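hey can u run this one w/ flavin mononucleotide bound, need the structure tokens asap thx
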Amino acid sequence: MKPVEKQRLAWALTGSGHYLRECLDIINQLLSEQVDIDLFLSKAAAEILQQYGYKHNVGRVYQDKTASAVPVEMFYYGAYHTVVIAPTTSNTVAKMVCGISDNLVTNIFAQSGKCRVPTIVFACDTDPEVESEAPRENMVMVYPRRIDLENTAKLKTFEATTVVSDMPQLNAAIQAQLVKL
Ligand SMILES: Cc1cc2nc3c(=O)[nH]c(=O)nc-3n(C[C@H](O)[C@H](O)[C@H](O)COP(=O)(O)O)c2cc1C
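ok here u go:
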């Protein structure tokens, strides 16, 4: 096994506009506190970041370019102490609860589970009604379906997985992990 100098936090973004800005604010805040973060983007996340025009300060960014999700190899070397998937689309949550790992982010979830790396997920579909940010800062009402809410509930039963439903909970769950290091 290759030696890992210092474990980092793996943060995966999916193609969600909901709380994207707030998640990037947390990432940038953690970076300013010298937390080492690698960023993983689903294909949709890469597009959504451009659409919303949001920026982040992460140096190491992995895009979803390979069929086998090559970057997940780093989980086998113990490169990460924590995984955060936030915000998480209903699409990615559905795949994760079905055990599907067919892209970079769903592979990260599968491998973090198999390698027993604690994982924190902010699923977009937390409530039957949510106010969500569309591109150009328009706010829209979104009504997650029963299947979306059921999938979020199922995710809470997964081992080594903490599902949070707002930004204070996300911040608290990350800080709880960081103090353990
Ligand atoms: C502007 C825009 C905003 C979106 N916001 C959300 C969202 O908040 N939640 C969600 O579940 N899907 C959202 N989507 C749809 C996802 O991007 C789409 O389902 C995509 O296939 C998800 O891929 P991924 O789960 O691999 O990232 C949005 C799409 C667009 C174009």
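The radius of gyration is 15 Å. anyway lmk if its weird
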